[in-house]
Amino acid sequence: MFRTEAAKECEVLINPFLNAYLNDVMEQLEGQIASAKVAMARLSSPQLYYVLSGNDFNLDVNNPDDPKVVCMGNNPQKIQIYGAVLSLYVTRLVKQVNKKGKLKSSLVFDEFPTIYLNNMDSLIATARSNKVSTCLGIQDFSQLRKDYGREQADVIMNITGNIVAGQVTGDTAKQLSERFGKIMQDRESYSINSGDTSISRSKQLETAIPPSKISALSSGEFVGMVADDPDNKIDLKAFHCEIINNHDALKREEESYKEIEVIRKLDNSMVQRNYFQIKEDIQDIIQSEMERLLNDPGLSHLVIKRHDYNSLDQILTSTFYILFSVSSMKFLIVLEDILLFRNCNKHSSPLFRL
Fold first, then answer.
1. CA-to-CA distance for 169 and 335, rounded, in angstroms?
2. Which residues lie across from 165 on neighbouring strands?
3. Cα separation of 209 and 4, whole Å?
4. What is the pLDDT of residues 271-305, one digit of tens each?
5. Is-contact 90 117, C-beta < 8 A?
6. CB-count burial class (<10 Å; 0-12, 13-18, 19+) for 120
7. Which contiguous run of DSSP H or E holds residue 163?
8. How far apart are CA 331 and CA 51, in angstroms?
9. In this structure, are residues 153 and 145 in contact, taking their beta carbons and an 8 Å threshold?
């Protein structure tokens, strides 16, 4: 079991496995390995390996020399599996896009809570200066709070400059109503008795859009608030409006849609061949790295061994390798089952089983 100096941050994650291995607590080690395997085995899919091992294009969508549109979709039946992969892509894309001297671009995340992006609040705060607009689509604020935590969800909600909302209820409606603020509204009251009728008029500060109205919005009705800048002042920032669609025109447009052209035809044999080829490549990498570490006196100390060899004449340990080369659109995940050292002869080499 080895660790490299370039990945000190991984040392905390490996320590539980390492301590169990060095202290010969194999039952604990097996339990730790099983817990990690359950989560990571879901990503070991031939289809994922094929899609993520290509090198078709870069993710710098706002590159002035090569602008592009990237569209990714999740599978509702496999949200947790594909959510991790999509988060990897989006994280890398954000780093490529959020730079000076690029074209104007927009990052649109529909059903945003289905993926996890660390430091999303920093992206919203800094990307606007690099001409990048960020649009987050969520069903309800409670959904964002459940998946991102209360503190980060509150920051994301409060840092956004523009907000458009349809029908929502509960705390989300109350929070939106408070965000839209209060305005002076005319109030009129009647007092009728046997002798005369009196009318009193007054002004009172009340919510511009009460929660009850937000909870009763119809389809196509929206409330919201927009932000402006010094060059484009907006007097009426809060709004309550309805979108009027021309359904006949929309139907004609949908009928004129064309099917996406087939770029490449695949069969199951090609996908499986790519899957096994990646596993062989990782096996070669592991063997070459282990040999390099063991044969180099300056690096041999990185290989951690137990010297209390049991009568079984072997050392069992488990290692998980996650190899990312996202810059070339490669995403390789290998679950290394057993790293086996056998003391058969002086020149015995590690045996690897993927």
1. 45
2. 223
3. 58
4. 999 999 988 998 899 888 888 888 888 877 777 66
5. yes
6. buried
7. strand 163-165
8. 9
9. yes
